[in-house]
TrEMBL record:
Biological source species: Loigolactobacillus rennini DSM 20253
SUPFAM superfamilies in the cross-refs: HAD-like
Name listed for the protein in its UniProt record: HAD superfamily hydrolase
Lineage, opening ranks: Bacteria, Bacillati, Bacillota, Bacilli, Lactobacillales
Keywords: Hydrolase
GO CC terms of this entry: cytosol
One GO MF term: phosphatase activity
Xref: PANTHER family: HAD SUPERFAMILY HYDROLASE-LIKE, TYPE 3, PHOSPHOSERINE PHOSPHATASE
């Protein structure tokens, strides 16, 4: 459901200084959720002072917060504990791992082992980088071990050398919650072929960068995680305001009552958003929060 439907036409998508559609929104918002890269983060992968202040003020007003990211638990936890210094839900690895504000686990959904093995085979065949994400560590397979552009996830990294090694890790009881493919060495044919094959697997498979793709178990995405949080906290997703920019944010922006697309968001994200804000490098999250969700 999209509240305030009279404000949802295309003309009103872009926030303006004279926006008259915000009356009543402030009283409705019960949770603010945000993606990180391309959304809450600026171009230096930092949360700007303006964004920090806006989120702290929202928390002080009693609004729940959630970081909804493809990143691992240590990164998301550190942002709450060391940067924002407020409590919040940690929706990690695109919804595969969910913790509450008291750092209690709500849900973990691991990838099926067989799909991980297929992913490794595809990475080896098509010579693309594969990252397999555990709760706190990331295992990286890179066919020729040459340096390419690193995936935008900060966590301890270990080298994955072979399919046999991956099988051993699985047999030892290790759980993995997300894998990624990304381009290395301008191997455009390889990434296209790997993505085409992975897209046929029973997975939730999305693009979250120009040549960066992410996979979680079927039905695992940010919106499903927020639905779990809504049930846990006895809240209604119609009263959630969430921010995003890329395909791994699509369901979240579509399904909450107040989905906000960044100015730098993909057209597909903007099409399903309740409102559009400005660029992530111009404090777009803080800008719309101050106009719609928090008291000035």
């Amino acid at each position: 459901m999209k509240p305030l439907t009279e404000c949802n036409n295309q003309h009103d998508k872009v926030m303006t200084e004279n926006d008259t559609c915000n009356k009543g929104v402030r009283e409705m918002i019960s949770l603010i959720g945000t993606d990180l890269d391309g959304t809450l983060f600026n171009d230096h992968s930092q949360i700007s002072l303006a964004n920090q202040q806006a989120l702290r003020q929202a928390s002080a007003q009693g609004i729940q917060l959630a970081i909804c990211s493809g990143r691992t638990l240590p990164t998301v936890a550190a942002l709450f504990e060391q940067t924002l210094k407020v409590p919040g839900y940690r929706v990690c690895l695109n919804g595969a791992v969910i913790y509450d504000p008291q750092n209690q686990l709500l849900q973990k959904t691991a990838l099926p082992p067989q799909q991980l093995l297929v992913a490794f085979q595809l990475a080896k065949r098509w010579r693309v980088r594969l990252c397999i994400c555990g709760l706190e560590k990331i295992w990286v397979y890179q066919p020729d071990l040459l340096s390419g552009k690193a995936a935008a996830i900060k966590a301890p990294r270990l080298t994955l050398h072979s399919e046999a090694q991956l099988k051993t890790l699985i047999e030892q009881g290790n759980k993995f919650y997300k894998f990624t493919f990304n381009l290395i060495h301008f191997n455009f044919t390889g990434i296209r072929q790997a993505v085409k094959a992975a897209g046929q697997l029973p997975l939730h498979f999305v693009r979250s960068g120009r040549y960066f793709y992410e996979a979680t178990a079927p039905g695992v995405h940010k919106s499903a995680a927020l639905a779990l949080i809504a049930a846990h906290a006895n809240l209604d997703m119609a009263n959630f305001m969430c921010f995003g920019d890329y395909e791994n944010d699509y369901e979240m922006i579509r399904d909450v009552g107040y989905g906000v697309a960044m100015g730098n968001a993909l057209p597909r994200i903007k099409q399903v958003a309740w409102r559009q804000t400005i660029d992530h490098d111009q404090d777009g999250v803080a800008k719309i929060l101050r106009k719609t969700a928090i008291a000035n």
